[in-house]
Amino acid sequence: MTRTLLLGLFVALSFAGLAQPAANRPTVVAGFPVNYQEDSVGTYTLPELLKSLDGKTISTAKQWTQQRRPELVKLFEENQFGKMPSRPQEMTFKVFDKGTSAFNGKAIRKQVTVYFTKDTSDHKMNLLIYIPASAKKPVPLLMNISFAAYNQTIEDTGLLVNYIWKDGKRIKADQPTVFGKMNVEQFLDAGIGFATVYYGDIEPDFKDGIKYGIRQHYLKPGQTETAANEWGAIAAWSWGLARAMDYFETDKQIDSKRVALQGASRLGKTALWAGVKDTRYKMVIASISGEGGAALSRRNYGETIRHISDPSRYLYQFAPNYHSYADNVASMPVDAHMLVALMAPRPLLLQTGSTDYWSDPKGEFLSAVAAAPVYKLFNEKGPETTDMPAAGDTSLLMNELGYYMHEGGHTVLPTDWTHIISYMKKYL
Questions:
Q1: Is the pTM of this model over 0.85?
Q2: Which of 256, 265, 359, 367 is labelled catalytic?
Q3: Tens digits of residue pLDDT in 66-79
Q4: Which residue out of 323, 337, 410, 419 is catalytically annotated?
Q5: What residue spans define the domains of the chain?
Q6: Under DSSP, is residue 142 helix (H, G, I), strand (E, B) or coil?
Q7: How many Å separate Cα 245 from the centre of its chain?
Q8: CATH assignment of 9-283+298-335, given 3.40.50, 3.30.70, 1.20.120, 3.90.1570?
Q9: Residue 365 C-alpha from the chain's centroid
Q10: pLDDT for 252-299, tens place per residue?
Q11: Is 406 a catalytic site residue?
Q12: Where is the signal peptide, in residue numbers (predicted)?
């Protein structure tokens, strides 16, 4: 990832003064207070992770897998992300770039259109895949969900020029993007394939995006919005990532049992939920996922459900039921430590930034601490300390439930990718 991409990601995702020192940041966002002081977080009690709905204590991996995990997945569906449909029977794949040499012979490039519906003129996404050319057997892969079209973020003249959404309109992605360029060769050098998809192919990222995205296809006659427990945009993007996995299972050059998934910010939330729902993903790297992702909702710090639920902001990203907890988060039956625990025993890395106050990096760390007992049921390791590591400290990075915080804000740094690749090499 280049410096241009870092700055672009920081600018594009900044909100509520993400780039400002804590003392200078706004104390009100969307008309609601924001807290950045540890002594004002308040007290809270997390819902019990290892106690089933019928009151039984969960003490074995089998009990977790067979009883508690299904309960929690359903609670998150009903109360946060919403239910989503299964794989569409009419889905098809078109590999329009079947294997072209790229990066001076270092990679084999593939481009695939995934048609979600029988009507191939709409509801489709374009996947870009690079396989190390030297590979003699199916390779592990990093699947990245991106804020930009892949022809905008990767230097390769053979790429399809896709379309993106801007100001509520679909336009050709033939102009530079603030997100800069992705360094694909670092993955190839590690023997890891790389794939990416533009999230707007699946569902546009704005309030009325349901009119154009995959959720529109599933609306009943006369229905203009989803029901209270049905999918928001994050679940729609997660659904699209499951469809990418459907393709990976058909590609003999990809080891579909060794695929990691990564996204940042709202796409970090997406990667986490997608990995929870689709256990075919071997690993998740949830970068700077914050509120609604890995950060504890009951901890009053930075962004809250109340901020998300304001109609001018991100109401559409979650199930409507989620917003009923905006003014009473303590009544919500789930919290982020449960979401994190649902990845167990698969590897999960939470990547945060020390000055990303809005996303609450400490809230993500405490979430991992609270989720660690579930990993322990599987004899896997999570944080074994309640002392938050300093920025740059890699002591918790390589756990099955890993945590790493860089010095800086709401972004993914080049050094983060170095650590992420080390993590993937260990567990893939």
A1: yes
A2: 265
A3: 999 999 999 999 99
A4: 410
A5: 9-283+298-335
A6: strand
A7: 15
A8: 3.40.50
A9: 17
A10: 999 999 999 999 999 999 999 999 999 999 999 999 999 999 999 999
A11: no
A12: 1-19
